[in-house]
Inverse folding.
């Protein structure tokens, strides 16, 4: 089932999400709906807060990045097959050079900015069957994980921008929260009634 994606300005996007256990109601259906919602919006990751649930869950399918001409064959193979569910994730370590990449977010449509993040991460999480994993990632995979991980900590990519960039985006962000933005996927706007 395609769920509405929560827009910038909704308080759920600012909450630090809570851990869940295998008894979480209809977890498998939620995971399936999150993937379906993400694919419908042409995203590569989606966190539970973005569908209005303050829980530590996010899904990623990095295969669209495999079509990028600027990546090598080894990274292409990794990206093509990277489809994962992360439950109760904790990033244990971020290392390496910070590098810029132009990020966007389904909750902040039509805004893209360069964000600096460290290149390698070590992450501990449970998969959809509640099997625990500790894994290391780098490059684009690490970047997508860091972006989605921020969501479960109540952080948005716009928080990582300079004060000047934030000021320049203030009007656009206000319009998003009021529903004054065109998107081709289902969204829920916090201030839509106030803005009309």
């Amino acid at each position: 089932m395609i769920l509405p994606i929560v827009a910038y300005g909704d308080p759920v996007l600012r909450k630090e999400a809570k851990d869940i256990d295998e008894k979480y109601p209809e977890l498998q259906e939620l995971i399936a709906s999150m993937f379906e919602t993400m694919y419908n919006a042409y995203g590569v990751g989606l966190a539970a807060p973005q569908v209005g649930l303050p829980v530590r869950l996010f899904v990623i399918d990095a295969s669209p990045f495999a079509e990028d001409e600027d990546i090598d064959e080894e990274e292409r193979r990794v990206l093509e097959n990277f489809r994962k569910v992360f439950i109760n994730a904790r990033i244990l370590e971020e290392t390496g050079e910070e590098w810029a990449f132009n990020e966007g977010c389904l909750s902040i449509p039509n805004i893209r900015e360069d964000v600096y993040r460290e290149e390698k991460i070590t992450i501990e999480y449970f998969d959809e069957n509640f099997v625990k994993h500790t894994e290391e990632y780098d490059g684009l995979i690490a970047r997508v994980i860091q972006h989605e991980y921020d969501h479960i900590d109540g952080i948005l990519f716009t928080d990582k921008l300079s004060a000047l960039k934030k000021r320049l985006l203030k009007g656009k962000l206000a319009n998003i929260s009021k529903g004054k933005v065109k998107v081709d996927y289902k969204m829920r706007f916090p201030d839509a009634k106030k803005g009309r």
User: Anything to note?
Assistant: The chain has one domain: 5-183. Strands lie at 5-6, 45-47, 57-61, 83-105, 108-126, 132-138, 187-188. The first strand starts at residue 5 and ends at 6.
